[in-house]
Amino acid sequence: MVGYTRDGKEWVPKFIESIDVNKCMGCGRCFKVCSRGVLELIEKPFHGNDEFGDDMGNKVMSIANSGNCIGCEACSRICTKKCHVHVAI
């Protein structure tokens, strides 16, 4: 799939495929930047310590509506933990 920018340059969208819940700290930045309703906060599907040796919270981000993703990668660009995986289709 190929799109075009306003000035006619080719652009290949990369759609969200997964989120690494072991890296995600549940800050919600990606949720706030996505206007398409792709993501949602959920309870952590695991218990344990994060990389800092302390559980930082009880929520992580999840993909709720992958079909709504337009491949802009805004969620990935704003994530400080780099836990989003995107793929070109």
Any overview of this molecule?
This protein has 89 residues and is an alpha+beta fold. The chain is built from 2 helices and 6 strands. It has helices at 29-33, 74-78, and strands spanning 3-4, 10-11, 14-19, 39-43, 59-63, 84-88. The protein has a two-stranded antiparallel ribbon with strand order 1-2. Strands 3-6 form a two-stranded antiparallel ribbon. The chain has a two-stranded antiparallel ribbon with strand order 4-5. The longest helix is centred in the middle third of the chain and has 5 residues, at 29-33. It starts with a strand and ends with a strand.
Task: State the main characteristics.
89 residues, 6 strands, two-stranded antiparallel ribbon, 28% strand, 2 helices, Alpha-Beta Plaits, elongated, alpha+beta
Secondary-structure topology with pairs:
Blueprint: E1 3-4, E2 10-11, E3 14-19, H1 29-33, E4 39-43, E5 59-63, H2 74-78, E6 84-88
Antiparallel strand pairs: 1-2, 3-6, 4-5
